């Protein structure tokens, strides 16, 4: 099934459990097609093992194993079935749950085993001796069926604190029965790195077993806990893409492998894979239908974004002064944010990023800085409105506004009728190519009605507007202690199918601010489409 | 200014820099009012120090320091001004930037100093000797002005790697000149806990200085890095609420203090403060207008939510089997994602809090739970709208709506005129005490016009409305991928001079949602005033 060994040169295991433990995250609900798509990305990324689910526990997971082996030509990963040790008092060879693991066809099985004495007694309701026998019997049986076996010791760290000898007995029993790796799980996620490191060191010295780590993020330390275990000698890390998982989540695959490759100089992924990390992180987020976390380490869109003026001037001297790695190594890139904390340096860098050379014109840069500061004082923000910033910059550089149309006036009416229904109607009066346009439209709100009226009026002259779509709309009330008399800022994100851009409007009311943001959104869309300005 | 010592019993410093470093996060843009509101929450929470910004660097921060000292009666925190060491070749006594720090009136100043030799040469463009002199001179000057001084050693860990002797010389110089704490900053955020621990231990042994830690989260280890520094002997931690900060963010205040209090048994906050943590985290997120992270350790709504069937059945046996702490200790609660048990309990608690006894009526509680669930699914949130929740609860208990007036219909018109001015006019048709009222008013926006028309119409019948004032107004667009066709949620805070209350409205457009929130706001105001209902 695999054309290469699942381990990397060093024999270190990168084990992904996005499809099993990651799927426990609140808000994630994966179809078989989703699971197959994610498995393909994970295999591309080069993880050694993909835990696909619990075959037999639900029909979806059973189907996934069948189809994954048929439909995916794994290049790097081995498929792993997750299941439990056999029932108390039975035999592994006759246990239907164990039989389903074998039937899945997965070459590797991860068995979850209890290692905390209290859990054995309270949750399994069996004896400590029988639990050890369940581990031994199930591992042996699966080994006889030709499977590689990993054993997840659930609640290991809490169990070790309560009864270290019993916890270690579970590790020894699993190893003696043929388990290749025993994974110490911080199931409740309450541990800190120093505790993890101490326990892993001791268990390694006392048992000689090959150890792995499975960390949950309840203390916000899952990545550090995983690395602490590696420091102590663990050679197998269990992670999930983007840290998805129950409660707070699991150890995030991306910062873990980035630390191992870039900070430890360990080769844990195929050559070149790390540079795909940002793309793969975002693709998986799209599949599970969660917005990619903008502030995720290494891969977030903000991970290499700079706002402080102090930083910006230093970055002009040398980008490495304010970034811990070259973002290209993880497929990300540096971005300069424009804000009133920024000075000349960040405006110059931003201009360069947009392909507008401001190089020698100190007056021009000074004017732009002053204008940004003055507008940000009035409530505008350009760090989240690149397109409005670019329009303003071009206006300064080219000495005139980029005009495709001019607004004469507009009007929006919102009406709540006695029957509880709402009517929203807008009329716009515009000028474009020497022509006066009057258009009216209805919408489900005043902004939607204005948006529609603007399109109705302009689409005949600028057919390029037809493919523009408003994909996000944000409202923020500024100086919030004045109630409804505050200033309102609106941010609009627009798409033309190939790219997205954001624009900003600020006014004393939400409708007027929205109109400004819409004007910029359409102007930028026409600029992007290469249309010649002609008011 | 403070009535208690800013340090806790142990003398440990919890230093918050949400208002300075946290504000560097992409997407955060704080007004002075926002900063004052956040400072109040941080002081309530009991941090020892609140870094408010860089006075003199921009007018907003200067205004913040002036108003914070006038308007806030700090109970726990000392206010801290952030600034830089003096310019190369000058004198601290004559440096305008240093003068602005003194003029801010803040009793504590944090000075950022370069400690990386390459940064001194490339970014500051001065000599290593002059940089030390800048530290010495600026610290001494501020001490002479009666300020407590902390020194942030920027890029300390990278600098230590490049030139450990120079990095330590900066620490010694600052301490010798009178700095109370020297903070080692991982400015680029590239460090891992083991590295932090080793460097902090050595620097502490070699310099004897009181050390602090400032960690950025670029490796996903900021919380662990902060704790590693504490393990090595640091007694001052710099954090931001919810981990806001440049790039990926800063060490998150909440998991850091939770670990110190709950895992280290260190007393770093006033008694009882930890149990307010979830509420305070969410309140600050609302002020900066970012959705509270659902998966944040300790305080996320998912942090103690259980989905796995395995976990659910074990939790029925004993909740501690699957949670690392009792969530009540941090003001959070366990949620079973498949049961309404948690819902009932919190509704009962909430009723008790409002003085409405629901004690024995299981049907009533069930109806309220169902109604809350149904409304939250449609976008309502009651966490931040206590008054709307109370109105709904009373409606269920008393079996009828609390009516002071009934809306027949309303209409708002917003017009942008050719001269650029805006006209906003609203008409409302209401019934109160058997009378039909038609009123019209103008405002600076459609919501303001509706608000005024409602008052004009009702004040004759309910003169109590005269003293109500809208003090805050927030808009959030839900399901943001549908552009202007999304659902809109409006939160309004109203004051009657003695207290404030918040109400919520949800509709397909911002005006209709605002109207709902205003209706609840006035109804609750009349209820508070003891007026008898009479539609």
UniProtKB/TrEMBL annotation, chains A, B:
Q: Can the keyword Cell division be found in this entry's annotation?
A: no
Pathways per UniProt: Amino-acid biosynthesis; L-isoleucine biosynthesis; 2-oxobutanoate from pyruvate: step 1/3
Query: What name does UniProt use for this protein?
Result: Citramalate synthase
- Which residues belong to any copy of the Pyruvate carboxyltransferase domain? 12-275
Q: What molecular function terms (GO) are annotated for this protein? A: (R)-citramalate synthase activity; 2-isopropylmalate synthase activity
Q: Which reaction does it catalyse?
A: pyruvate + acetyl-CoA + H2O = (3R)-citramalate + CoA + H(+)
Top-level EC class: transferase
Q: Which family does it belong to?
A: Belongs to the alpha-IPM synthase/homocitrate synthase family.
Going by the entry's taxonomy, the superkingdom of the source organism is recorded as Bacteria
| Protein species of origin | Streptomyces paludis
Q: Which InterPro entries match?
A: 2-isopropylmalate_synth_dimer, AIPM/Hcit_synth_CS, Aldolase_TIM, Citramal_synthase, LeuA/HCS_post-cat, LeuA_allosteric_dom_sf, PYR_CT
User: What's its EC?
Assistant: 2.3.3.21
Q: Which GO terms describe its biological process?
A: isoleucine biosynthetic process; L-leucine biosynthetic process
Q: Which UniProt keywords apply?
A: Amino-acid biosynthesis, Branched-chain amino acid biosynthesis, Isoleucine biosynthesis, Transferase
* Keyword Metal-binding set for record: no
